[in-house]
Amino acid sequence: MFKLLSGQCGKDDAGLMDKVYRFRHDFFVDHLKWEACRKPDGREIDEFDTPHCYHVVGLDGGTVVSYSRLLPTTRPHLQTHLYPEILQGAPSPSGPHIYEWTRCAVAPAKRESSRGVDAVSGPSFTAVAEAAALLGLEGLLVQTHPILVSRLMSFGWEVDPLALPCSYDGSSILPIYARLTPDTIETHRQIFRLSGSVLEVDRVRIPSRTPIDLPHRRSA
Amino acid sequence: MILPIIADLKLLVVSDIRQVSFDIIHRLRDARTRTEVYGELRAAGHRFGYDAFLIGGLPQTETEGLLDCAMISGWPPEWSQRYHTRGYLHHDPVIRRIRGTTDPFLWKDAPFETGDERAARVMNEARDFALNDGFCVPFHDLDGTEAGVSFGGQRLSLSEDEKAGLHLVAIYAMSKARAVSQARSRGVERTRGHLTDREVECLKWSAAGKSAWDTSQILAISARTVEAHLASASRKLNAVNRVQSIAEAMRRGIIT
Question: How buried is residue B104: exposed, middle or buried, by Cβ count under 10 Å (0-12/13-18/19+)?
Fold first, then answer.
């Protein structure tokens, strides 16, 4: 099950957000060794975790098994305020209908326990596409390994490169703008054999400041 | 005041390669057929300095050869044939390296043991076809399958920026190669209407005037099974009876 939470509602769901920050610390600091993000209380939170961001949380029972964060590009985000150098001077799109997809993670135990496609990764990618459509977005900025860019393309995102791939912190990274198309969600569902929506949307969790037509989608 | 000028020059070169790569990608995204993808990659070779290229998946079984795995081939045809017939796909150190890395690499950095004569032979024979140097971009899917785009030539020397540009070109070439291959197989499926070989066979005999009993004798199966095959074919072709089934199958070119 996947939940979409706004940063604003996080305050009302402190228990879940606490689990989310601990999951992020387990994954990014302990598993991926992002030492700069290490926190003494074991909760990975940064200055971008504001009331304006969205959290896409995958849950198995009460346990967090996947996560992605969407940051508004009308405010400071990673491409502009953390590592603008990866754009190598190229312009990057921004606006109220463009968010930045960051902190994408699937619990390593879930990924390693299966051969081939595991049960969480596919739906977690689908949940992000559904969240983007639900929020009325045109697309998402992403900076990730080129291998994952190829996958996003095969999942039905229309991908514009923003710069050439470059090396960042010892790993290859490619900044892109991934646009939702009318087929994006359906393509995810076909590839991962999903019969319907994976995102469980609770009206109360979406703050009123963002006008959203529920549950209208940009695609079937 | 020499340093700032050099810095500017470098920026100019980088943005030039970026623009060249983006232009190629733009055209690749517009490509609708294998031939168009092939043409774009041929043309891009003039800019990056490669003479040949190959887009393909990695073999999933021991019996698959190059011709089973190639999606779009710009290899010299004689080399493709030799490579396929001799099963080099299973000894090529470049192919092995794809399985172990997610980052692009030069062919010369694809390692093999000094005693591995079969691997050495693949690399040596490639030189006979003017494939001395190469650059390979690996792909790894979520389901664990691998693929690659390889560029080769008599003398391929790429700057770091050119490698980055060619990496990006490879990503879009692979994406488009997959899309046009899928469109092709979907087209074939639509025409064939998912009919099985047995169903097609029964339709052919039916069109030749044979009864279900005749057909059952020819195919050494029961008449009841022949009836079942014909009924199933009829359903798949949206036909109400056997005459319409045959007419529809002929119209679609399933039988002639």
Answer: buried
Alpha-carbon distances of B168 from A163, A173, B136, rounded to whole Å: 9, 11, 12
Rounded Cα distance, A131 and B112, in Å: 47
Residue B253 token pair: 């070119």
H or E element, residue B72:
strand B70-74
B194-251 to CATH, choices 1.10.10.10, 3.40.1090.10, 1.20.120.160, 2.40.40.20: 1.10.10.10
Domain A2-205 homologous superfamily, CATH: Gcn5-related N-acetyltransferase (GNAT) (3.40.630.30)
Q: What is the pLDDT of residue A54?
A: 95
Residue A164, phi-psi category: left (phi > 0), alpha (psi -120 to 50), beta (remainder): beta
Instruction: List residues of B whose CB lies inside 8 A of any A CB.
Output: 11, 14-15, 17-18, 21-22, 25, 102-103, 138-144, 161, 164-165, 167-168, 171, 174-175, 178
pLDDT 10s digits, A119-154: 899 999 999 999 999 999 999 999 999 999 999 999
> Is the minimum CB–CB distance between A145 and chain B shorter than 8 Å?
yes
How many CA atoms does the CB half-sphere of A97 hold within 13 Å?
9
| pLDDT per residue as tens digits for the range B169-208 | 999 999 999 998 877 666 665 666 678 888 888 999 999 8
| pTM assigned to the model | 0.78
For the cut 80, the answer to whether the pLDDT of residue A113 exceeds it is: no
Contact between A147 and B18 using a beta-carbon 8 Å cutoff = no
